[in-house]
């Protein structure tokens, strides 16, 4: 199938490379010329396990990138993978989606034959039909249903495992208006749907839009509940990991997302929960439970620093922070809990030296005024430190030697694999 993808961010690039890997002819439309050149050179513009090899394998054959929207006319289906950034009030900024849709519509005005436009970006219910569709109709001068159709196909990609998540998903959700649109998407995903472990969910457009939000809101709520239970367990002197391991044996609950600690971050959970809360309020409903979910999550970094302050006078102290990305396996620092830890340490007068295997350049570029020293190794970060905290559970931190610290005080926000007896003070955030 000939496929065009508008947007070469995290989602668009991953989807493009994976669809090419499945044998489709894929063109990635992107306004950033540097990203276009990077993909066409066979390189990955983002850090993601398994992505670089797939781009290298298919660039120049069945995967290419362009800045020319006219290229979509030679494809059967277009996937909109455009950013939907968060506004100050938590609502979505649809400006990139509107602009990209308009340019797509203008390009489709000169196309002969039918075309399916699929929203893959995470958007609130009603966006596909009430925002995207009217813009397409006007720009293409073609009524929806008379040559152009719209559909919703949410993504469920996790940083660090995005390629596997796309190729071996738990579910594929197709939100369509017509049987023809559903048939087109089933053909697009046929190699994936051949996997017996992948569930096919076919529903209407608005339900498909809400499924993504419900999915992430549920997982974020589970993590915050686990952290709340972990905080309570620590007050009782109990090990939350032992408690929650037993709880996870209940098949109604499962053992996934049961690691208590510093909390959730990244590009999905914070933005999606905020958008759902803002959307609910626009509809006249106060989402009190989701408000509490966010409140618990926001408090965890402060608790971590407070625990460290119980053992180290932070004013003027040298503190090593291990991990800056929001999770291991990615260089993404968006809404990383580690950044909140840095802020709280700075507020208390500490001198911070940090190390992360892949995310330090992103922190330098995004926060150039941050008063922070970067180390070229975990050992260098720990040298002469009065205390240390673990903010991201990179495998490189397991069995790490903490020799060289002025005082071997560690507050662990992620439960890495270390011998607690090797420390003067070892504190787990929730254990």
TrEMBL record:
Substrate binds at residues 212, 257-261, 265, 327. NAD(+) binds at residues 84, 122, 271, 334. Residues 320-418 form the UDP-glucose/GDP-mannose dehydrogenase C-terminal domain. The active site is at residue 268. Pathway: Nucleotide-sugar biosynthesis; UDP-alpha-D-glucuronate biosynthesis; UDP-alpha-D-glucuronate from UDP-alpha-D-glucose: step 1/1. The keyword NAD applies. GO terms for biological process: polysaccharide biosynthetic process; UDP-glucuronate biosynthetic process. Its EC number is 1.1.1.22. Keywords: NAD, Oxidoreductase. This is UDP-glucose 6-dehydrogenase. The lineage of its organism: Archaea, Methanobacteriati, Methanobacteriota, Stenosarchaea group, Halobacteria.
